[in-house]
Amino acid sequence: MQTMKYLALGDSYTIGERVSEQERFPVQLVDTLRAYGLDVNDPEIIATTGWTTDELAAGIEEANITGPYDLVTLLIGVNNQYRGRSVENFREEYVELLEQAIAFAGGHPEKVVVISIPDWGVTPFAEGRDREQIAQEIDAYNAAKMEETMEKGVSFINVTPISRQAAEQPELIAEDGLHPSGAMYKLWVDLMFNEAKAAITFNP
To answer: In the structure, how many helices (H) and strands (E) does the chain have?
Structure first.
């Protein structure tokens, strides 16, 4: 059996801003897949804190990726929302990224897993802002994201409800008061594990 390759595309939530490398969700996911008995390489991560959809696209182009990968995860969009960009603009750029992700997975949508945008409006960082408006905008982004994802036959993992638990569980937030802690990422991995396992073991 050949060692499996995993590509993680995204922003601060994928690079794991303010958590250790071992606590990043792609690293926790690989650890969990290995514990299940799968031979998976360390994740190849293309992600930078603050990236929007167009910036991720530029980062991918610069990285000169060579696939195919056995698993590709994609988590992007929060910075589009934060900067006040329209859902329509997001949808257009997101679809292009999703198509790229499928191409990196050898043209197999079954090998791609998309993760919803978490709600940063519940975090201490959002103090003094309109938390309800943030939630509504995140929901609108995620609705567009889920629609396009499902249309392509790609798995969609909704971590947004988990992110909202941080309103009552401060241990789910990193020390910066904004990003998820390793404990929250563990909950994400638990939620996405079955889909990720199905994706990485899918044999076309």
So the answer is: 8, 5
Name the burial class of residue 156, with classes exposed (0-12), middle (13-18) and buried (19+) by CB atoms within 10 angstroms of its CB. Answer: middle
Between CA 148 and CA 33 the distance in angstroms is 27
Distance of alpha carbon 188 from alpha carbon 101, whole angstroms: 20
Residue 7 phi, psi dihedral angles, 5° rounding:
-115, 125
| Cα(118)–Cα(90) distance, integer angstroms | 16
For the segment 89-135, what is each residue's pLDDT rounded down to a tens digit?
A: 999 999 999 999 999 999 999 999 999 999 999 999 999 999 999 99
Nearest one of 183, 177, 188, 67 to 118, comparing CA atoms: 188
